[in-house]
Amino acid sequence: MKKLLLCIFAVFGHSQAITHITQEQAKQQIEKSSTDVFSNASKVVIGINKLNEEDLEKADSTEGMTTWDGKPLSFNKGVKFKNAKESDQIVKVDGSGVIIVNEVTPENAETILKHIQSLKTQGYLSLANIQNIIQRIKKMGYQDIYDSDVVFIKANMTPAFPERVDLMLGTEEQPLGFFKRDARDVCKAFYVEGHVTFEGPAASDQEALQGAYIVKQGDNPLRLIQKNIFERTYRRVDGKPFSVEDFAQYKQ
User: Fold this and answer.
1) What's the whole-model pTM score?
2) In the prediction, which pLDDT does 198 show?
3) Domain containing residue 233
4) pLDDT, position 14
5) Chain segment 26-76, per-residue pLDDT in tens
6) Alpha carbons 173 and 197: distance in angstroms, whole number
7) 181, 210, 229 - which closes a domain
8) Helix, strand, coil: what percent of the chain each, to 5?
């Protein structure tokens, strides 16, 4: 029995080493060796309007939250939510924030957009409405949800189906619709094996338990993408699928 217990401990008793990567370390790896890719995932983008004084008073505080490089956030209020794949998120409520829902089908995009439109009062989404939308999306099974801003959408995304006016309901300054990344938007990436934590752009470190890709897109902060999500939603620049072996492997 003692030998059996020792064998079990040998297999399961040692926790997996965690690889922690900073932005600077990731930048050095990108410069040394990386692979060109682009994203072909469709996303629902939800522009968050500026909250009125009553809602703003009840919105979540950003106190104690920092950017990836340890600096306090540049805004005081927002709407917090959990991204099950990564970390805490908080979207701005000054009219410049957006919520992005990743890997959405056209049918579900239509359902989400109709729900959002049904909640608006004279074009306004209240704090309770925004919280309701996030919960509704999660109940539909979408957990890869993150915050961004209008500037990023303008620079990096285009309509997934330009001919479907029912899937593009917002404006340039307040986007609401079904988008995809611009195919001309080439990113650079490398692979990290095992349990990874990364000093990404979110309010807390990003984390992956079973491997991840670190991606650089333009001048934006590098970010971690879960292995399974990346392999579903990214392609090489020649349009072909890839395997882990195609990528530079990060080693400390």
Assistant:
1) 0.72
2) 93
3) 16-40+183-246
4) 43
5) 999 999 999 888 888 899 999 999 999 999 999 999 988 887 667 888 899
6) 34
7) 181
8) 30, 30, 40
